[in-house]
Amino acid sequence: MRGNWRKICCRYFPQGIDIYFDNVGGEMLDAALLNMRVKGRIAVCGMVSQHGVTDSGPGIRNISNVIVKRIKMQGFLQSDYLHLYPRFLDHVTAHFLAGDIVYVEDMDEGLESAPAALAGLFTGENIGKKVVRVALPLNHEIQ
Questions:
Q1: Number of domains the chain is built from
Q2: pLDDT in tens, 6-33
Q3: Minimal CB count within 10 Å: which of 12, 28, 42, 130?
Q4: Which GO terms describe its molecular function (predicted)?
Q5: Nearest CA to 47 among 56, 36, 38, 39?
């Protein structure tokens, strides 16, 4: 799925992005910054695209959108919020069951696809949560 991140963001988020949880950085963060809505929020938890990078390159080109769109961008460590986990679980479970939370899964099939799926996490090959299904559920009927 690697390619023009700006077009991909527009395809999956045509109304813009309200909240972006960034684990990648680099080109994906640049594209997200272009597609953020006014007063959007970005939680920065990782920069996996920068692992193994030996030259600094041009950096984030669209950072001015933080000002123009009044975006709040903040570093995030889950360990800072462990004490809130019980409240979080109650709150998110209710919203998830109500269908209020939307997410994208990038699904691969079979254990043999796991190495490429893992490598793709470091090169931006996926959009959303990467999942490798290694077996069908036990209650699945074989046809």
A1: 1
A2: 888 888 899 999 999 998 888 889 999 9
A3: 12
A4: oxidoreductase activity, acting on the CH-CH group of donors, NAD or NADP as acceptor
A5: 56
Rounded to 10 degrees, the C-alpha dihedral 6/7/12/15 comes to 70
Using alpha carbons, list the distances in angstroms from residue 57 to 4, 24, 39, 54: 18, 16, 28, 9
- Residue 49's domain is classified under what CATH number? 3.40.50.720
Domain that holds residue 56: 5-79
Give pLDDT, residue 26: 86
Q: Provide the whole-model pTM.
A: 0.63
For 105-128, the pLDDT digits (tens) are 999 999 999 999 998 887 777 788
Find out whether 132 and 112 touch, Cβ atoms under 8 Å.
Answer: no
In Å, what is the CA distance from 5 to each residue of 33, 98, 115, 125, 133? 11, 30, 23, 11, 26
d(CA 28, CA 45): 14
Strand duo 105-109 + 72-75: pairing: unpaired
